[in-house]
Amino acid sequence: MGVRALIDTGAFHSCISLSLLKRLKLESRLIPVSQKRLFTADGKAMKVLGTVELTLYIQEVQIPVTFCVLSCLQHDMILGVTFLNETKANIDMQSHVLTLYNDMVGINLISDRDVIVRTTDAVLISARSEALIPVLIPPHFGAGLSIIEPSIKLHILQLALAKLIVSPVRNRTVCKIMNPTNVAKFVKRKTALGVIGLRKLAVDSMTVIDDVDSTLKPPQHPNKDDNITYVRKLEVLTEKGINLQQNSLSLDEYYDLIDLLFKNRYLFATSMHDLVGTDVVEMEIHTGDAQPVRKRAYRRTPK
After folding, report:
1. Number of domains in the chain
2. In Å, how far are 28, 30, 63, 76, 141 from 25, measured between CA atoms?
3. Do the beta carbons of residue 109 and residue 97 sit within 8 Å?
4. How many CB atoms within 10 Å of residue 197?
5. Is 24 domain-assigned?
6. Is the dihedral of CA 284, 287, 289, 291 positive or negative?
7. Global pTM value
8. Domain assignment present for 95
9. Residue 72 burial by CB count (10 A; 0-12/13-18/19+): exposed, middle or buried?
């Protein structure tokens, strides 16, 4: 179970709430203590119900931690100075990363306004290439101009993520991933790629470099859909995983290609959910009196 913890350099002991212990169904591990109290920064006393030994899993590294159990705690879990000293922790505020055991393992520091973005489907990234991968953002994340920063876990996959300024639509956007290795990399569905957070970004204060705007001139023929610009059409096609470059095409040919692909954009499947099947062909399987047997699903041949 994933639990968000507060890294508190002002707390000596690591603490956990009794409610979280109950949700984890680990209340039986509680070791009661008598006459032990902790004090908050303003001097308020908090009664300690007991201690519990738990194992934290951070990027597949198991870290045993002793927690003080409190009945009233603002955060479900607090990791204090004792934990930071024992794990030789280093907090990099510039990159928002916490590393443990002399940089052996690291994890992103996430604020209340930051959210993990995950892949919507499994994807295979070719060797020495880059790809725009659709990612899903939790529903509670608000709309607006946001920035995606790489997850510390990407180094395990030997992948790199480019920082992007995005404006999510219906809790979806894309990440630009690069595979610098000589072998293809398989990324599982719902893999954490980065952290997205709302930032106070003003478009007027940034120099926007847009290859489309800088190279494309108004077309000689009219836009077939006056309500949608060619820039927006390219953005929609990019979300579908279609990256168009003019290359040797003339300007008119390039615009015709954009119109054609945009008009038929619903024919391109971005996941298995888009392949809903067909009723053009019906198949009968004669099983006689045999009882059904659960078998692993497999595809029929094109023939």
Report:
1. 3
2. 8, 11, 19, 14, 29
3. yes
4. 17
5. yes
6. negative
7. 0.46
8. yes
9. exposed
Q: Dump pLDDT digits (tens) for 55-90.
A: 998 866 889 999 999 988 888 899 999 999 999 999
Which residues fall within 8 angstroms of residue 258, CB to CB, at 6 or more apart? 230, 233, 234, 237, 244
What does the CA dihedral 256, 259, 265, 267 come to, rounded to 10 degrees?
Answer: -50
12 with 100, same domain: the answer is yes
- Residues 130, 100 share a domain: no
Question: Considering 82, 108, 134, which residue would you say is the last residue of a domain?
Answer: 108
Q: Does residue 26 contact residue 54 with C-beta atoms inside 8 Å?
A: yes
With respect to residue 190, please indicate whether it lies within any of the assigned structural domains: yes
Q: Answer with the residue of higher pLDDT: 296 or 163.
A: 163
Q: What is the pLDDT of residues 221-249, one digit of tens each?
A: 444 555 678 888 888 888 887 888 878 88
Domain range holding 130?
114-204
Tell me the pLDDT tens digit for each residue of 131-148: 888 998 887 776 677 888
CA 109 to chain centre: 14
Cβ atoms 42, 59 nearer than 8 A: no
Question: Mutual orientation of helices 251-263 and 230-239 as an angle, nearest 10°?
Answer: 50
Question: Considering 61, 84, 108, which residue would you say is the last residue of a domain?
Answer: 108
Q: What is the mean pLDDT of residues 97-121?
A: 78
Asked if the structure places residue 286 within a domain, the reply is no
Distance CA 116, CA 190 (A): 10
For tokens 């055991």, the residue is 101
The pLDDT of residue 78 is: 93
Kindly state the greatest CA–CA separation across the chain.
84
